[in-house]
């Protein structure tokens, strides 16, 4: 193969990866994946094993370079780095993520012939994707299945989850690539048709059903500019703004939700404000959930928290000196501490070495302590909320570990102001939709500047606010009963199935 042909192949792999971006929100052209992935696999099939890693890396660099380009907004606008340095850091992140499809490409090309890829590739890919979701706390963004929330394959989500949907997508796409090369169209297209039709049929099954009971919930989108959030002189104006925006909604809602770190003061400093807020909520017979940072001045530990105030359950409010108060006490148990911390943004790897190298490594609130993996639900006015702060919503295993028999809703709060008008917030919302569909539970997504939305138990957006507006979203949310198979069984079925297919492929390979 000539040098020109090799470079052309790498460029085409890069473009196929970049094209994947259009499969995800806000574009949501789910069919794109069934063009991009077969092209990449076709190129991989036509590549010598010694070049397979590079083809996978080129594909991954395009996939993540275009797909998470929104990270550059936070680095360039708030990281304090010059343009060339921010581009370099972005390239470093994308190169790291590209190593995972590169490794999968090398393994499948090195050890299996093309005709065995539909059997072997799902297990190889899932193993590499699991590694991506775990290594250095994990970054499972742009996993393949998220692109299919609006496709016929979405019916598989309550059965095998987004993780399992990766396997089905790879079976389809490797079969299509095989058809391009071997011209065995009938069998492979039949398999594709069966998987898609099965998804449509499965989507008609009501794994979870509304009980007829509802909760009236309001979510407040304060739209505080990112550069003002940790400016001390803006603390009180921000807290006043949230209180004012909520003032007309106390009596009409069972629960009110404020987003991540809506209260910018540290919890021990904001105690007077919190007690007043607690009393107002309790006097209105309302529960309030808000984000706030707790800091222990003795241990020097900071926690990114969600806390409950006001009415916890029907008997939680009481009178002290004639004043109605709720259940809030400093360090009370009705709270959640973020477990999955974002590298650089919330903790600094090798902190003693790199903390002072550049402003991005010394951002406000960039050294948190991790909360427990499994925690109690937050209670508000008799309802139970399973929390996920910011990108924790991208970790289904953690969400599953925090779902209990009496969990009513999944709540995810975020501050996507870091990413401006990019496609990052839309991808974030799409991930929340997938979690709702997987677990058969409504997801309530409260953000600082959008996209704030109520998602029903089928993954459909029930209502949402526009981005970059000061607004309050209110809606009646259905409570549901029943559990999806994925909520009960998790990833074990797809691991067993993909591993069985892998062993069949190994057996065929050894019998050649």
UniProtKB/TrEMBL annotation:
<feature type="transmembrane region" description="Helical">
    <location>
        <begin position="185"/>
        <end position="202"/>
    </location>
</feature>
<keyword id="KW-0808">Transferase</keyword>
<comment type="function">
    <text>Catalyzes the phospholipid dependent N-acylation of the N-terminal cysteine of apolipoprotein, the last step in lipoprotein maturation.</text>
</comment>
<feature type="transmembrane region" description="Helical">
    <location>
        <begin position="156"/>
        <end position="178"/>
    </location>
</feature>
<comment type="pathway">
    <text>Protein modification; lipoprotein biosynthesis (N-acyl transfer).</text>
</comment>
<dbReference type="InterPro" id="IPR036526">
    <property type="entry name" value="C-N_Hydrolase_sf"/>
</dbReference>
<feature type="transmembrane region" description="Helical">
    <location>
        <begin position="55"/>
        <end position="75"/>
    </location>
</feature>
<keyword id="KW-1003">Cell membrane</keyword>
<keyword id="KW-1133">Transmembrane helix</keyword>
<feature type="transmembrane region" description="Helical">
    <location>
        <begin position="81"/>
        <end position="104"/>
    </location>
</feature>
<feature type="transmembrane region" description="Helical">
    <location>
        <begin position="12"/>
        <end position="43"/>
    </location>
</feature>
<dbReference type="InterPro" id="IPR045378">
    <property type="entry name" value="LNT_N"/>
</dbReference>
<dbReference type="Pfam" id="PF00795">
    <property type="entry name" value="CN_hydrolase"/>
</dbReference>
<dbReference type="InterPro" id="IPR004563">
    <property type="entry name" value="Apolipo_AcylTrfase"/>
</dbReference>
<comment type="similarity">
    <text>Belongs to the CN hydrolase family. Apolipoprotein N-acyltransferase subfamily.</text>
</comment>
<feature type="domain" description="CN hydrolase">
    <location>
        <begin position="220"/>
        <end position="479"/>
    </location>
</feature>
<dbReference type="InterPro" id="IPR003010">
    <property type="entry name" value="C-N_Hydrolase"/>
</dbReference>
<feature type="transmembrane region" description="Helical">
    <location>
        <begin position="116"/>
        <end position="136"/>
    </location>
</feature>
<keyword id="KW-0012">Acyltransferase</keyword>
<dbReference type="Pfam" id="PF20154">
    <property type="entry name" value="LNT_N"/>
</dbReference>
<keyword id="KW-0472">Membrane</keyword>
<keyword id="KW-0812">Transmembrane</keyword>
<protein>
    <recommendedName>
        <fullName>Apolipoprotein N-acyltransferase</fullName>
        <ecNumber>2.3.1.269</ecNumber>
    </recommendedName>
</protein>
